C-alpha cells in the first residue's frame, strides 16, 4: 500500500524503503489503492489477495537486492 500510495503521488520510489510494522492510511484507502492498481475491473477477494501477495514478494526482493540499492548503483539505473 505504501509503495502504491507514493507512486500515485509521484514520489521517487528508488529511495523509499518499507519499515516493518509501520501503519499509514486506513483500510478503505488501502483497498481503494489495491482496486486501482490490480489490473482487473471487478476482482474477487482471491484475486486481490494474489495481487498483494505477488507485489509484496517482488518489493521485498527488490529492497533486499544490492542492485536496487541507490547507494550501490548511484544514478546508473535511475527509474529502474
Describe it for me?
By secondary structure, the protein is mostly helical. The chain is 52% helix and 0% strand. It has four helices and no strands. It has helices at residues 2-8, 27-37, 45-64, 70-73. The model has no long low-confidence stretch (mean pLDDT 87). GO terms for molecular function: ATP hydrolysis activity; ubiquitin-protein transferase activity. This is RN213 ligase. One of its GO terms (biological process) is negative regulation of non-canonical Wnt signaling pathway.
Throw out a few tags for this protein.
single chain, 80 residues, mainly alpha, elongated
Number of strands: 0
Terminus-to-terminus distance: 20 Å
* Count of helix runs: 4
- CA radius of gyration is 14 Å
Approximate shape: elongated
Helix content: 40-55%
Q: Structural class, judged by helices and strands?
A: mainly alpha
Largest sheet: none
What would the average pLDDT be, to the nearest integer?
Answer: 87
Query: What order do the SSEs take from the amino end to the carboxyl end, as H and E?
Result: HHHH
- Quaternary organisation of the protein chains: single chain
Describe this structure in a few short sentences:
InterPro entries: RNF213. By secondary structure, this protein is mainly alpha-helical. The chain is 52% helix and 0% strand.
Amino acid at each position: 500500500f505504501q509503495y502504491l500510495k507514493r507512486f500515485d503521488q509521484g514520489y521517487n520510489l528508488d529511495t523509499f524503503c518499507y519499515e516493518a510494522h509501520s501503519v499509514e492510511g486506513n483500510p478503505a484507502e488501502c483497498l481503494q489503492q489495491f482496486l486501482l492498481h490490480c489490473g482487473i475491473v471487478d476482482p474477487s477477494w482471491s484475486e486481490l489477495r494474489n495481487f498483494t501477495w505477488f507485489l509484496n514478494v517482488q518489493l521485498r526482493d527488490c529492497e533486499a537486492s544490492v542492485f536496487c540499492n541507490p547507494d550501490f548503483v548511484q544514478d546508473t539505473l535511475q527509474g529502474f
